[in-house]
Amino acid sequence: MQKTRREILLFMGGGAAGAMLTPAPWRLITDTAIWSENWPGIPRPAAGEVSERYTNCALCPAGCAVRARLVNGQPVSLAGAAGHPWSRGAMCAFGLTAHHLPYHPDRLKVGSASEAETAAAVADAMARRGAGEKAAVLDLAPGRAASAVYRRAMAAVKDGVYLTPERPLGGARVDLSKARTVLSLGVPLFAGWGTPGNLYTARANFRLIQAEPYESATAALSDEWLAIKPGSEAILAAALAGKIPNTDAAVATGLAEQRIVDVGLSLRANGPSVVLAPENSPEVFELNRALGAFGKTLVADDSAEHGAPDGATLASVPDGSIRVLFLDESVPGAHIPWKAIERKLVPSNPLVVAFAWSREGYGRHAHFVLPAAVYPEMLTDIPSALDSPAPMFRLAAPLVAAPAGMIDPVAFVAKTAGIDPGNPLREKADAIQKAGRGSVFTPAGGKSTPVRSLKPDDFWKALNNGATWMGEPAAGTSFAKPASTLAAGDASDFRLAVAFTGAHFATLASPLMAKLYQDSDLRLAPDTVALHPDTARAAGLADAARGKLETAYGACAVGLVLDAAVPKGLLRVAPGPETLDICGANTRAKVAAL
Amino acid sequence: MISANKPNKTARYGMSIDLDRCNGCGACMVACAVENNVPPVPEEATARKGITWIRVFRVDNGEEGEERRSVFVPVLCQQCGEDTPCVHVCPQQAVEVDPATGIVGQMPERCLGCRYCMAACPYHARYFNWWDPQWPAGMEKTLNPDVAPRMRGVVEKCNFCHGRWHAAKERAAAAGKSEILPGDYTPACVEACPTGAIRFGDLKDPASEAARAAADAHSFRLLEKIGTEPKIYYRSTREWVRQAAAAPKPQEKETAHG
Predict the structure, then answer these.
(1) Residues A229 and A252 reside in one and the same domain
(2) Domain co-membership, A146 together with A61
């Protein structure tokens, strides 16, 4: 059949028009336009050799075992090390994003002065100290190998004092595996307390009673929630210990008298029991003693392998007595409000040197702030976990190199004191290996080995590859009763109780953590206060987005969130650089207009 | 939380999320963002403009005081089955259900940003890139090389960490196997969940943990009545939680409460 040119052209035209009705050309258009969607503004992830390394998280004493995925030696993701006998492959949201910390927008890369200038100023201040004026190190993460050096350094200095924060439960450790009933007096069990993997494993075997004014995440998952009045936790503990009448406690806590009786019976009948509180108070001590918790669910931390003994507490130092103060906040540790520290300094010409990785924190108040490496750049050990009855030794081995110019706080303090710091980590490892107790879990191999079967070098090598040493559970029976609850000054003018909504190290978070407060309402943003609308109205803040938070330590500006679920008389405070400066243990506060 | 069973030729991947175990820690949210190169949202953004492929909502029973009870509900793309609204409405064929895995995939290269899919999604599990992705200086070094950052103007959503599925396929191929063994493929949120609340696996494999959990008497799916056949199952022993998931109309609620 003969085809004319017209027919061929018609066929081609019809085919082209028909093709336009199929997806093919449209796909072709978008697929060929990909180049237009890859403009330079979009970062390209670096490709390269993929490898794995193990380390331990240094953000808190839980020290969860970490499996890091690296591309060309750069960590691109962190995950829990599966099969780990302690952390059991679990990590918190902070730990999962810790590889972002070296690139945090608030990263401190240059100090306020050079190391030499700072050292000269410190030497001058040390020499000019008057009679009784002290030099001090405030070690916010005691129990590390570095802590022993700090203690030694201050012992070598005239009027030197090594300070550590008061520890929850007086340094006793909690053995949740033995507990059948846990009474938590506002402890954020599921929001930063203890080791997530250990906690969730033990959770199946104990009944949780959460006494807290508002329904926190822990209260939401508890077996019984006691919605007590703000600030009445110690009264409830005293009543349960039989120290005050239940009738009085019922009035103070807002609970029915029978309810308090039932809780007391439950704690005694379904033992072993343990009572947990965020601060060390005599009421909680008495209740734990009455329940027989000491030696069962609470073990004394008397093992030399738990680290250097604690130093003096800040409260034991007279006000206005410290002339030179070193603050090491390179490793996240406990928090003490700056104003409480400040009152211990001499009135004129004190010198505070802070070692910090971030521009936030104590460095803002220090006379000299020196930049320090941050996890996962640094090599440090991690104190034993609060919920571990056995001593532990883990290293946070660096995953990336620290930038140039970072200062080693231990070396600086040792040099100031004129002592040789030695290699405290290696010395501690060798001492543990020599003692020969306990076993070492190596995450890469997934097995435990008795430490006595390892040579010192092999043990050290294993530790640097993320291994965890676990000793034998402590068997001490000496528990120190706290003298009194910490007071935050005259609270008569401050009628609202303060409840922190998370761990204080929340301020040391990856920018991605904004997913939890900015992209969703899962958490409060840093330096934000949630309060009942009536509380806000009474303070003249009914429509205000921001307000002033005042405590005995001072005042700061905060964001306000009105939440009818927060009881009247309570302020839920999200830790942030500003609120941490003025809020501490048992803080009471008021809010006002800016 | 994956069972290690024999491989299947075609799979129907799904999840079971135990709401009685979820504590709202947000580990799944940040692990997802790290894995899938989801950037921090700019400070000027509102709460509705951020991108969180998995978002944990706090839902309460509406009571006051001590009667109040809350539950944390992680919501991600529900990976609808036969009747997938977003697939139907996409004019660009940028959304497809992979017949080999059952995963609803989103192809940003084809997306023209009309956001019909966002309007059609009954679970609000799709997110639009209002800005070019940006990370603080230096943090781009920590991006996952297996996942390309998306550009401004396209929609994105959970794809069960497709990069991990590809990596598992490659590992299987390198080992001379044609199929992935179940334990070889785990989305980031499942791996990160410290409470073990999220279980993942092939729902066609009755031995998988996800399938067994999905068959539990207390399991349910969100908005089951609209017939989208999601592959995300939730579980709670609390009756009010299961009722809330059905999202009854206000008059139905009143009737239910008498």
Answers:
(1) yes
(2) no
pTM score of the predicted model: 0.91
Judge if A182 and A293 occupy the same domain: yes
Any chain A CB within 8 A of the CB of B58? yes
Give chain A's mean pLDDT: 89
Edge-to-edge strand list for the sheet holding B198-202 = B198-202, B13-18, B232-235, B219-220
* Structural domain ending residue among the three candidates A276, A299, A322: A299
Would you call B29 and A518 a contact, using CB atoms and an 8 Å cutoff?
Answer: no
Is there a contact between B141 and A74 if contact means CB atoms under 8 Å apart?
yes
- CB proximity under 8 Å: A 497-516 to B: 510-516
The CA distance from B186 to the nearest CA of chain A, in Å, is 12
The reported pLDDT for the residue numbered A39 is 64
Same domain, A196 and A224: yes
For residue A225, give the CATH number of its domain. Answer: 3.40.228.10
Average pLDDT, chain B: 89
Is there a single domain that holds both residue A57 and residue A141? no
> Is residue A390 one of the residues assigned to a domain?
no
Q: Which residues of B145-184 are buried (b: 16+ CB within 10 A; e: fewer)?
A: bbbbbbbebbbbbbbbbbbbbebbbeebeeeeeebbbbeb
Residue B144's pLDDT band (boundaries 50, 70, 90)? very high
Residues from chain B contacting residue A44 (CB–CB below 8 Å): 149
Nearest to A34 among B109, B147, B196 (CB): B109
User: B98: burial class by Cβ within 10 Å (0-12, 13-18, 19+)?
Assistant: middle
Statement to judge: residues A286 and A179 lie in one domain? yes
Span between the terminal Cα atoms of chain B, in Å:
41
Distance, in angstroms, between A186 CA and closest chain B CA? 15
Count of domains for chain A: 5
Nearest by Cα to B54 from A548, A254, A519: A519
Q: State whether A518 and B50 contact (CB < 8 Å).
A: yes
| Residue A520 near chain B (CB below 8 Å) | yes
Cβ neighbours of B217 (radius 10 Å) = 7
Q: What is the domain extent for residue A85?
A: 50-103
Residue pair A516/B27 in contact (Cβ under 8 Å)? The answer is no
Closest to A514 (Cβ–Cβ): which among B40, B56, B64? B40
Q: Which structure tokens are listed for B176?
A: 């001379």
Q: What is the pLDDT of residue B257?
A: 45
Domain co-membership, A181 together with A71: no
Q: Are residues A290 and A315 in the same domain?
A: no
**Bridge partners of A560?**
A529
Which residues pair with residue B104 across a beta bridge? Answer: B97
Query: For A38-89, what is each residue's pLDDT tens digit?
Result: 566 788 898 899 999 999 999 998 999 999 999 999 999 999 999 999 999 9
Residue B36's alpha-carbon distances to A229, A538, B52, B118, B150, in angstroms, are: 44, 46, 10, 19, 10
Residue window 215-234, chain B: list those with CB within 8 Å of chain A.
none
Interface of B with A in 173-212 (CB under 8 A): 188, 191-192, 194-196
Interchain proximity B110–A27, CB inside 8 Å: yes
> Which residues in chain A come in under a pLDDT of 50?
486-490
Position A17 in a domain: yes
A328, A346, A372 - which closes a domain: A372
Nearest residue in B to A520, CA atom: B47
Residue written as token pair 């995440």? A217
- Which residues 54-73 on chain A approach chain B with CB closer than 8 angstroms? 71
The reply to whether residue B25 touches residue A92, judged by beta carbons under 8 angstroms, is yes
**Which candidate from A27, A45, A520 shows the least CB-CB separation from B144?**
A45
Q: Give me the mean pLDDT over the B44-60 stretch.
A: 89
Residues of A in contact with B113 (CB under 8 A): none
Report yes or no on A260 lying in a domain.
yes
- A200 lies within 8 A of chain B by CB: yes
Residue A348 in any domain: the answer is yes
The answer, yes or no, to whether ipTM is higher than 0.95 is no
The domain spanning residue A588 has which CATH number?
2.40.40.20
